[in-house]
Here is the input.
Amino acid sequence: MSNANEPKSNEKITGQQPALEDQISKDEQPLATEEQPLTKEETQPLTKQEAGAKRKADLEKRKLENIEKRKKNKEVRKKLIAYVKKFIPMILIATAIAGIGTFLQVLGPNLVGNLVNEIEQGVPNLGMIDFDAVRRIAMVLVVFYAVSVILNFSQGFIMATVTQRISQKLRTDISHKINRLPLSYFDKVSHGDILSRVTNDVDLIGQTASQSITQLVISIIMFFGTVTMMILNSGILTLVGLSSSIVGVVGMAIIAKKSQPHFIQQQADLGNVNGHIEEIYSGHHVVKVYNGSHEAGRVFEEINERLYVSGWKSQFFSGLMMPMMLFIGNFGFVAVCVVGAMLAMNGSISFGVIIAFMIYIRMVNQPLTQLAGVLQSFQQAFAAGDRVFGFFDEEEMSDETHKTEQFTSIKGNVEFRDVAFGYTPDVMVIHNFTAKITAGQKVAIVGPTGAGKTTIVNLLMRFYELNNGEILIDDIPISQMSRKNVHDQFCMVLQDTWLFEGTVKENVVYSKENVTDEQVKEACRAVGLHHFIRTLPEGYDTVLNDKASLSQGQKQLITIARAMIQNAPMLILDEATSSVDTRTEHLIQEAMNQLTVGRTSFVIAHRLSTIKNADVILVMKDGDIIETGTHIELLAQDGFYAELYNSQFEEVDAELSSN
Here is the structure.
């Protein structure tokens, strides 16, 4: 739209285009610290009592923040569990399979110890080795490990399927949620941040579900199973091995607590980076024209630096877990070897027990090390889940399933009754707007930037809800109709063209059913596009993508042809010819004149030459209608419209009069 941001022309609307002027103006302003006087705390040192009170207040603040974070994590956990409720049976089956496979792995080292004992008993006399017993134990080991591999493969297959289903469901629900959100939400949240939630955050949740849930169960079963087998073999060696592991568990708990806030901040900063990149990329022409590359780069560096800091802190703290557990594992391994050797020399244990413990000590530290990684994954998933479910909790448009009344065959009478609206409750941009349009009239809405022209059209389409007043179509308030039914009554051509990757025909037909090829060609002929399309490699079947080089004017012509195909009872043209040259504008104007016959049409235009033939011209200023009439009548009034018109055409009129 030409004026989609009129009421907020002085604000930066993230996700629309980079507000370079705002950024530059901020740079030109002096720092606040240069203007403001220093406070008492900055000029005078704190007394012991004041310093103690300040420390106590800071501790209380941090305590409250930690409590709030724990509550938030608990809420996210509940929401995640509730969300994957229907997948829980499959997850339980996968974890049960993984548990059985892990249990078989836990039994393995004990069988290895028995195997070693059988060989040890026959070492003094080689002929006394019971090779049958050795063979039986070896076969059991092979079967155990083979079955364990098959079970682990099965659980991996099940969890991969489940997690992809969860990710698919998350993306689908986000897509549906986006369709239920009011446009006001997108005015305050950048598109890049929303994309980050759909991609990065959802992928993170999926990866955690895929790798960490079963890994958590496997680690727990392996740890307690290994400890049980260790106790059965030797209580003393068990104490030696677990003493180091307990230190590792305490260390992991401390690190996890420290790193969680940084993971949350990292996800938020990632969303900000994506939002800024999307913002600048979508408006890169504006950035280049205003030489804003340096300023945009500076802002990016600031955001990227924050992401670097939060990412570095989160990865640093969580990265301490692995090396710490490896060190503790190696220390425990050495301790078991030394103590085990002493016990074996005293005859307290057999050599096979030492061999079994050397494997078990690795196995008991392995789940602890894996738990460190699982905790890290869960921390990231909780941070991502907080953002995703926070998005789900956003306020939606009101439910309209109860609205069964439908517009069927409308004439096109439109009435605005004392309409008042503000994008924020405290700042009204439309004040008591009243107008009555007869069916079939061509209504032009003109006025300076920020007058509220596009806002009126947005309200007519029910993109936003009114603060006061009513809008009626054929004497029926549009608030009583569903938004979808209201949208069906209009076709729109906006200043900003939108084409998707598909053929020319698909872009022209867009969502309209039962459209013939001849109707498509007829619409394209009407806007002067047919000849150009025939020059394309595949004609109407040419795919429009990055490789298809179309001018802005040609893209606009396709969107105008699309409006013709929709054939809705009412028409909205928002600066529809602003991106084309004068000759093409003349051709489009003729086509639009044919299109508007018999239809109520609303035309927003800055080029006043394009609306001379309008039946009614509404002149707006500061959210109010200040003049109404035809082109001739308004010029005769010599008011605000005449001033606008003369400012555009005084040079042309001077030339014509001189000729």
